[in-house]
Automatic annotation (TrEMBL):
Chain ranges of the AB hydrolase-1 domain: 129-400
Origin species: Trichoderma ghanense
Listed name of the protein: AB hydrolase-1 domain-containing protein
Transmembrane segment boundaries: none
InterPro entries named among the record's database cross-references: AB_hydrolase_1 (IPR000073), AB_hydrolase_fold (IPR029058), Meta-cleavage_hydrolase (IPR052370)
PANTHER family: HYDROLASE FAMILY PROTEIN, PUTATIVE (AFU_ORTHOLOGUE AFUA_6G07060)-RELATED, SI:DKEY-122A22.2
Pfam families for the chain: Abhydrolase_1
Region (Disordered): 81-101, 424-454
Amino acid sequence: MQTALPGTARDPFLPPWTEAASKEDLTSTAMFPHGLQLRPDQLTRRGSAVLAAAACLSLYLLIRPTLSPRTKSPKTDIVRVRNRSGVDPADPERPVPYPPDLFPGGRDVETVYGTVRVFEWGSEDGDKVLLVHGVGTPCIALGGMAWELVRKGYRVMLFDLFGRGYSDGPSNVAYDECLYTTQILLVLASSSMSWTGASSFHLLGYSLGGALAAAFAAYHSHMLRSLTVVCPGGLVRTSHLSWKSRLMYSHNLLPEWLLRSWVRARIEPQHGQSADVPDGGGGDDEAEVNFDDVPVAVGRSTVRVGDVVRWQLDANPAFVDSYMSTIRYAPIYGQHDKVWAVLGEKLAANRELGMGLQRVCVVLGDRDTLIVKDEWIEDTRAVLGEDGVDVRVIPGGHEIAISKGKEVANVANVAISSWKSCRLNGGKASKSSGSGSGSGSGSGTRSKRNRYRN
């Protein structure tokens, strides 16, 4: 078939608009198979439509996970401890600062979040005491306190928090009070003796461990006989956080690899330089003893906190990430109207009923530049109530639970004895008048030379 020229006879295979098209229009049209011709303006409109559709599809694929319910939770990735033997691969003859058999009754507890290192020893007939260590130094830090409690007839349990010491660390969960409460319950359940049920054990937490102990008590107070927190986190005022600390522990503001390198450099033992939050405040003349040089009182005077932290950085690949996540998500700062308020309400209710946990023993150092004595006395009494807190102040800085474990154990023993007398008096708590309660001169400022690794 011969196609008619435009302007002479209409071609039945061409669309109607071609009848009015000029020769210039036809020379600029695009030719497609089967005789379809498109003008440039039509090509532009079609291209825009295609791009818009592609953009909408990309946006839908991007937000689809948030629109549909998750049908399967992600698998927990576990970062394992490199070596549990306690032998330094570089120098097998040199003892590591924290050997896995340092305390009696050691065991590895397998959990869905990884292996947890637990120690349990002491009289099987004595009251049970669970000790929870701080953010950076594993449970070896509380060894002196644990041994003193054992000598007083108690049965004690220590364990390494996730990502510290010989405990593995989950890599895709937040290190918040939920994770740590779960770990405490898993540790308690791992014993061959009963550590659960009503009024089963005494809980003692140091630094971060104090914050975690308070969070545990807020919802599980029925399990506790007494609660003692030493230089605890939880009511640290957020005004003490510097811009550098806020940036360092931020989320999604800087690349994670950069923040990880920054944090690792700051928690690396440096003997006197600023290492961690909270910071700000006073000058070098107000600084307490350098935390890295504090001896760990477990019968080996040559072992210091800095030695343990340096070993941990190499031995436990989960340490830095667990440290960062803990600072971000654990109940360390500004919990006045959060978990500590819940705890205060629980204590008040128990006092009305004349049963259960009714008061918290708070032990502070008069020269602690991290947990400022005067602020904590004011805040704990405001949040927990005058009858809900027993404040004890002893000489020393933030390291007192490590360097003065025997003295702190004696204070904890008073809190435990107070619980026993409360039971004998029909459940009504009596305010103890131990020396140093809410007294003593101390610094109200903070030093930039402190480490918040304990």
